[in-house]
Amino acid sequence: MLRFDRWVGVVCAVALPWIAAAQNKLVIAGGVYEDRPALAVRGNFTPIRNAAVKLYRGGAYLSSTRTDAAGLYAFPLVSGGEYTVAIDSRSFGENAWAEQTFGPSGARCAQPDGSTRMQFFEGACFGGKSGASDDASTLATSEHIAVVTVRDTPATAVDFAFSYDVVTSTNDGERIQGSLRQFLLNANAIGGPDRMRFVPTSRAPEQRQPIVGVPPRWWMITCLSPLPQLQDADTVVDGSAYNFLSPDTFANPNPGRLGEPPTLKAEDRSAQRIEKPELEIVASGPEGLVCNARCVVYGLALHGAPAAIVTRADARVENVILGGAPDAAYTQNGEVGLQVERGTTIARQVLVTAQTRGGVIVAPGARIDAEHLDVSRCGGPETGGGIVLLSDGSSIRASVVTQNPGAGVLVGSGQSPASGNTIDGNTISSNQAGIILWAGSSRNTVTHNDIMWNRLGGVTIAPYTNAPPHENRLSANRFDENGLRPIILNLGSTDPNVLARSEGSCNSIANAANLGIAPPQITSVQMVTDNGNAVRVVVRGKACRGQIVELYQSFVTSGVREESPDLPRVRNEKNSRGETLTNDNRTQGLPSIGEFNYVGATNAGADGTFEASFPLVDTNGMPRDNGNAQKSETNEETDIWARDLLRGAHPNERAFSAVAIDPVGNTSEMSVRRQVDRSKEERAER
């Protein structure tokens, strides 16, 4: 209803000059409007008051006027002929400068090849006649013009529209109309939401020369000085490029998504990937884009400044590449890709690379809600990392953190603990270290991650003195080929590359990480057979009352060393605390370099004992103990990789480990692995 009323208002405003025409015989009349969304559609127009309009004939200046409250102007004529109407775009919008989006029949409009076209019908006209900045002091330097021929009837509807939110130029500098810099200045000067619409009036240049295929194209803005910091709330910096003739249609000169195979199956479209940006910004100064008020940054590649994007208020950053070009190629090192200083930043599909301090750094008091990040080549061996969380309550999900010279994820620092953060469903691979929890960082959750090939451990508690981290839940992860132990609560261990034997104690240690809870003891691993075929594996052991016991499976390799299964039991052995234990000394401490694949969990009973049973799966994904069962039933009994892990290997080629988790989340280190007991089998019940 509101759009209809606005349309009627515009039509009535255009009709008024016809009344004047009846009185003055010949007239050139029209209106000047603001086209805030920059779509060149009349239904979005609102009048601009006090805009200066000039009239020329034969190149000679005749007169000027200003638009009224309805945005209308009119020039009475003495005779017919060819006239030129010019709009002074600097005459309205105090402290701001709008760019043309719409012109009448006869308007002169810029073409991507650098030429100027004449409009035969009213419509989109972005950037004026040449895309240069408007100087209405002379007709030759005026950008927003239309040639109007008047014969026996008046010329009406000579209408122009302008937007403060359109970016048409890739040039940078002071007083560049239609530039990114001017858009940011406009957003600060004009209250209310501002959404950048990038409608370039130049052709996207070729940026690479591939050996085969079509050269990729995108636009580049090289900043000559630091960009203005955003001060007004609800500003959207959007690098998506639109067609200059149809501004609601994507130009799409750089199609596709990063990492997408050339031959795409229909189901592959559901994978979350970064759309290749069409705008590259080379920033200048210490900071690239700075949001001091609520903002959105979308669809661009940004590099060149030590800190690429800095958010000091609530923000959303999506489909953005930081530290690389739109094809993700390396450009130059920065220091921080995304620096979250205040408020909550939502990050989706963000690639960060080549940052010396950190790919993403969240300062104390700020938060990040991140999904589908891709962070690589960030941090250094002695400082920084891929993602650095220095505050409470952030979440990192479904992301890839890989090949960072520093740690993959740092939670807290030596001076600033970070608590209540969630790291869930990520791939954390090939970093200096996987995840490091610093002193005092508590109540963090690390779950369902694939943590592999990190040089200095999977999840490691950094050295602490008087502030041990507590209640950190490390659950349902997969560890593979990490140096040192998969979980290290005490770097001061005699040999952190060897899994320590559990002493079976249920005592907590207040000044130890995660209260120093002991890992469970696995006392037996047996196969259940049916007609001579192994169909299930049963794991039994001892933990502490009220604990959750998570089971992990490994394939037995030459690194899994076991004593002979028929060795006598060792009784009345005393540990370092003087406690008397009765152990089956069958399994020694095993090297931790290897895989630990989460299979499932069970609860310890009142006496601390536990038992867990998992189905073995045949090569078709069907559980062997029920030929009529569906694959989903197997998945319900295991988790994550279990349906793949419990197949493809002989039962005797498997070994199992466990971690214990107490009711508040304190998690133990990984227990020593135990192979399947070869001398014992159970029969499946019929």
Describe this entry's structure for a reader.
The chain is mainly β and 686 residues long. The strands form seven sheets. The chain has a 28-stranded mixed sheet that branches. 48% of the residues are buried. The protein starts with a helix and ends with a strand. 6% of the residues lie in helices and 37% in strands.
Question: Which descriptors apply to this entry?
Answer:
37% strand, single chain, elongated, 4 domains, 6% helix, 4 helices, mainly beta, disordered N terminus, 686 residues, 28-stranded mixed beta sheet
Query: How many DSSP helices?
Result: 4
By DSSP, the count of extended strands is 48
Q: Mean pLDDT, nearest integer? A: 86
Distance between the termini: 72 Å
Q: Quick one: CATH class of the largest domain?
A: Mainly Beta
Radius of gyration: 34 Å
Helix content: under 10%
The dominant shape is: elongated
List strands and helices in order, with pairings.
Elements: H1 2-24, E1 27-35, E2 45-47, E3 52-57, E4 60-66, E5 72-76, E6 81-88, E7 99-103, E8 108-110, E9 116-118, E10 123-124, E11 145-150, E12 160-163, E13 166-167, H2 180-189, E14 194-195, E15 197-198, E16 219-222, E17 235-238, E18 279-282, E19 287-291, E20 295-303, E21 307-311, E22 315-322, E23 334-340, E24 344-362, E25 367-378, E26 385-389, E27 395-397, E28 400-402, E29 407-411, E30 422-424, E31 427-429, E32 433-437, E33 445-447, E34 450-452, E35 459-461, E36 473-475, E37 478-480, E38 487-488, E39 521-530, E40 533-542, E41 548-555, E42 570-574, E43 580-583, E44 595-603, E45 609-615, H3 631-637, H4 642-645, E46 654-661, E47 674-675, E48 681-683
Parallel strand pairs: 1-12, 13-15, 14-17, 16-18, 17-20, 18-20, 19-21, 20-22, 21-23, 22-24, 23-24, 24-25, 24-26, 25-27, 25-28, 26-29, 27-30, 28-31, 29-32, 30-33, 31-34, 32-35, 33-36, 34-37, 35-38, 39-48
Antiparallel strand pairs: 1-2, 1-5, 3-4, 3-6, 6-11, 7-10, 7-12, 8-9, 37-44, 39-40, 40-45, 41-44, 41-46, 42-43, 46-47
